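Researcher: Next sequence.
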Amino acid sequence: MQSLDILRGITVAGMILVNNGYGESFEMLQHSRWNGMTPCDLVFPFFLFIMGISCYLSLAKTQFTPTKAVVWKILKRAVLLFVIGLFINWFHMAMKGAPLDFGNLRVWAVMQRIALCYLAVSLFAIFANHRYTLPTVALLLAVYTLLIIYGNGYSEDPTQNIIARADRWLFGYGHLYHKSVVDPEGLLGTISSIAHVLLGFYCGKIIKGSRKPGQGSQQDIYAVCLNIFTLGTVCIVLGYLLTYGLPLNKRIWSPSYVLVTCGLCALLQALLIYKERQPHSTLHTPPFSLVFGVNPLALYVFSELLSIIFSTLGVNDAIYNGLHTVIPWAKWASLAYALTFVAINYAVGYVLYRKNIYIKL
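Model: Next structure:
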């Protein structure tokens, strides 16, 4: 599915863009401080939803059979993802001159959440009956809702917020993210994130229900797109209804945030599938996003390490100051720097793409 690679590429490029603004960025390229949602808050949830689709399509090749080889591959991949995330955190610490300060090594981050969600959903895929996918989503979101309601999950006081308290009790303050009330990739938020990936998994089931690309009738394609579009619309409506009691909040990965972002990603995926299956579709030409889409995790990890190196060596200062002399407006200069950083990563990805090198775990 090239449409899935393109959507994944758009998302990864977006993740790199919003993570690498310099100085004063536009508000739409900054995460919400607490309640609410900006376009910046869409990129990571989109990636998790896409991962759910990929889990279904990938494990379908094994008929979802829990053989030793399949289970071992799932466990190995999850561990590698988690370790890579820890390495990024350690590398940041090491570049600051404290490579042995393990008492302040952050446990959580994007890769670690990806690892736990991938593990949970993949094990569900091979051991559970898939007709329980949506009931499992509902159960996980219901349990998490009770946790944040009765545990003051929306409180901005970390001594009262159950999400912050759980992470501090289990891992200690030194191992957590310190620029937010809660660690945005902390342990309890993984509950709703697993539900998030399961919704993507269900979308993958809808897609796999169609015939193989090029073999299905146009009516089949319309039916698949309509079903995904329906899923997305229902999620968005339910999500916004929930905001009356449970505001959108990326930091705690609120149930309303899960539903709205999954819904938006589903709508975009339906649109891209529809476009891909049209005769003479331009989607079959290698677009910018496909370069990021075929090596998503490799380029994301590379971008994180490169960002740390640039920051430590002052390369980001030099590039930004050079751009700022040409672009006098700080926010536009910040955007120009972020786009320049994306372009550098694109150049690396393009070389891999042209050489047919696909880095996978």
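Model: The chain has two domains: 1-30+290-361, 41-278. Residues 68-95 form the longest helix (28 residues).
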